[in-house]
Write a structure and sequence with these properties.
Oligomer: heterodimer
Structural class of chain B: mainly alpha
Strand order of the largest sheet of chain A: 6-7-8-3-9-10-12-11
Largest sheet of chain B: none
Distance between the termini of chain A: 34 Å
Radius of gyration of chain A: 20 Å
CATH architecture of the largest domain in chain A: 3-Layer(aba) Sandwich
Structural class of chain A: alpha/beta
Helix content of chain B: over 70%
Order of helices and strands of chain B: HHHHHHHHHHHH
Largest sheet of chain A: 8 strands, mixed
CATH superfamily of the largest domain in chain A: P-loop containing nucleotide triphosphate hydrolases
Number of helices of chain B: 12
Chain lengths: 326, 323
């Protein structure tokens, strides 16, 4: 069992240092990703999901405090020396960054940018730039292009080629389709899905858009205010979320074929809380429509729900019959 | 780089140069109604001689006639004769040009090399000891006029220790072989080029530091780190090439100041180049000489800006491919 766990995160806290004091962005997260498994991580902007992604390879600013443990293929990323960390980066886990507009160096040819990673980790890969471009459906003449000569979708393909170039175990896809239009978004999702299946990769797929998680993830975790509030098998969770926040998140997207939801998508009033001024008790209670008095003082921990062994929810109502699957 | 980009830039430079030539025409015609009022031997000339001289200088007839004569002679590089030495202005300039080219060339190369290095390092390690020390140091250099460095070096290094000559291009009257003569000239160049380098080091370094700071937050640096690159490689391969772009354009603008700096530096060290010639020509109101020197200085700035534009095109593929 242990061997098949590619990523094991325990009690992870990430606290940024700002001029206004410490900012707790991730507050006690546990995550497991098995070999070949895709975990979807969903939440609003500012909930800490990108911080979590960056922290996995220690790409947060040097003054940031990280505690807990991040076991990547059994090795703790948080205790590695810089040299060891550099060897693990990209070779064990790579990142497909958001947007890809600014994540490629504008004055370097894309072939050289892919090759840079290959040369750096030549021990773990024998891939060539040409192969990687072919894998993502780009012609090898593209290697001589600069990023500004590519469309948004092509840049994201280059990013994916780069992320795969060193044969990592885990791909961290941080909102990989957010900046793209819908058609290209579908193509990129398809591409990621195919590659993942062919290569048996594990993936952490981060998004604010629950609708993209339905067909390409095995499990889904929902994050709110630096914490995971609900986790479970993708289909089950997306069909009937238990936590009121996951439910609101799911309902904020219109359902195709349901005109009512298209014309009146349900929004969630209010903003995600400022990490510096977290509400007492359950951080979601000020925006929650089913909050009870105890929510203001008691913060319920993520725990298994009675009716499903694979699901965990952090809510006082988790085991209420009335909140069962619709 | 596309040919169109190069041709466009060259045409732009030529048009600017033409505008300077036209401006020069008017500038030196509003200085004085009598073009010979500053001519030293004026009182000894008869009326006819004066008129003949004015005619020869292309200053008779209507403004349009004068303009045509002026353009024609400028194209022939005929700038008349110096009031001061009575030699042709072109000869005077040709004699003094190499000295200035060497001085400004060496100083510019040193300033750009050292300035960009310090600025890049300071910006990259923002807030570090190196950053704090170098930034306060370069601020002082930036704020101090270059002739002040010149005077300090002259008084302390040349005057007290005698390690370096106090001025001139070479030892007068000495009879050296080829190698010794080169060494002697280099010896005379040290203090003036040091002065000019110190004078402009600060601004180049501060510019580069600012561009570096702007680059620090860029996403492609996170990509480079995620790939497993060492910090030093992230800096040299990714941050510096991008930070150079804004620096190159700002540095191009500052070339005009370096030419100005050459005037004061050459004056402080009695270094017989175009800068000293300019100072002398201003002092003697040597109008033909000044007119030509203005043109040379403008042409130099325009040329260096053209070089900077083309360098920019080489460094930035986005410029290279557009147009």
């Amino acid at each position: 069992m242990i061997d098949s766990t590619v990523l094991k995160v325990r009690d992870l806290y990430v606290t940024y240092q700002s001029s206004f004091g410490p900012v707790p962005a991730v507050r006690g997260v546990d995550l497991d990703i098995a070999l070949g498994e895709t975990l979807g991580l969903a939440g609003e902007s500012g909930c800490g999901k990108s911080t979590l992604a960056m922290a996995l390879l220690r790409l947060v600013p040097p003054t940031t405090q990280i505690s807990g443990s991040i076991l990547l293929d059994g090795q703790n990323v948080l205790t590695m020396k810089p040299g060891q960390l550099r060897l693990v980066r990209w070779a064990q886990a790579s990142i497909v960054f958001q947007g890809a507009q600014h994540v490629l160096n504008p004055v370097q040819r894309i072939g050289a940018q892919i090759d840079e990673a290959i040369q750096l980790h030549h021990g773990s890969t024998s891939s060539t730039v040409r192969e990687m471009l072919a894998l993502v459906g780009l012609s090898d003449t593209r290697a001589d292009d600069y990023p500004h000569e590519l469309s948004g979708g092509q840049k994201q393909r280059v990013m994916i080629a780069m992320a795969l170039s060193c044969n990592p175990l885990l791909i961290i896809a941080d909102e990989p389709t957010t900046a793209l239009d819908v058609m290209v978004q579908a193509q990129i999702l398809q591409l990621l899905d195919n590659i993942k299946r062919e290569r048996g990769l594990s993936m952490l797929f981060i998004t604010h858009d629950l609708s993209v998680l339905s067909h390409n993830t095995d499990r889904v975790a929902v994050m709110y205010a630096g914490r995971i509030v609900e986790v479970g098998p993708a289909e089950e969770l997306l069909r009937g979320s238990i936590h009121p926040y996951s439910r609101a998140l799911a309902e904020s997207f219109p359902i195709i074929g349901d005109p009512k939801s298209r014309h009146q998508p349900k929004g969630l009033a209010g903003d995600p809380p400022d990490p510096n001024l977290l509400p007492s008790g359950c951080p979601f209670h000020p925006r929650c429509n089913v909050a009870i008095d105890s929510c203001k003082s008691i913060d319920i921990k993520l725990s298994a729900v009675a009716k499903s062994v694979d699901r965990q929810v952090a809510c006082v109502h988790a085991n209420d019959e009335s909140r069962s699957v619709k | 780089m596309s040919n169109r980009y190069v041709i466009k830039k060259i045409i732009g430079a030529l048009l600017t140069l033409f505008a300077v030539v036209v401006f020069n025409f008017f500038l030196f015609r509003i200085v004085d109604r009598d073009p010979l009022s500053k001519y030293r031997g004026r009182s000894k000339l008869s009326l006819e001689q004066r008129e003949a001289m004015i005619r020869r200088m292309g200053l008779s007839g209507s403004k349009w006639d004068q303009f045509v004569v002026y353009i024609k002679s400028t194209l022939r590089l005929d700038f008349g004769r110096s009031f001061d030495s009575t030699r042709p202005v072109l000869r005077e300039i040709a004699d003094r040009l190499p000295a200035t080219l060497i001085l400004v060339g060496i100083s510019t190369a040193l300033t750009i090399g050292i300035g960009l290095y310090i600025g890049a390092k300071a910006g990259w390690a923002r807030g570090s000891r190196f950053d704090r020390v170098s930034t306060s140091g370069t601020m002082v250099l930036y704020a101090t006029p270059e002739f002040f460095f010149g005077m300090l070096l002259l008084a302390i290094v040349a005057g007290r220790t005698g390690w370096f000559p106090t001025g001139g291009l070479r030892d007068i009257g000495a009879n050296y072989g080829f190698v010794d003569s080169l060494l002697d000239r280099a010896h005379h160049l040290v203090l003036p080029s040091l002065t000019l380098t110190l004078g402009y080091l600060g601004s180049y370094s501060l510019i580069m530091r600012t561009s570096m700071l702007e680059t620090l937050g860029e996403d492609y640096l996170t990509t480079a780190r995620a790939k497993g690159l060492k910090e030093s490689d992230v800096m040299t391969h990714h941050a510096v090439p991008n930070a150079l772009l804004p620096s190159v354009s700002v540095i191009a603008i500052s070339f005009g100041f370096v030419i100005g700096g050459a005037i004061t530096t050459e004056t402080v060290f009695s270094y017989p180049g175009l800068g000293l010639a300019t100072a002398d020509a201003i002092r003697n109101t040597d109008l033909p000489m000044l007119q030509a020197l203005f043109l040379v200085a403008s042409a130099a700035v325009i040329f260096l800006n053209l070089v900077a534009d083309l360098t920019y095109g080489l460094l930035d593929p986005r410029i290279r491919h557009s147009t």
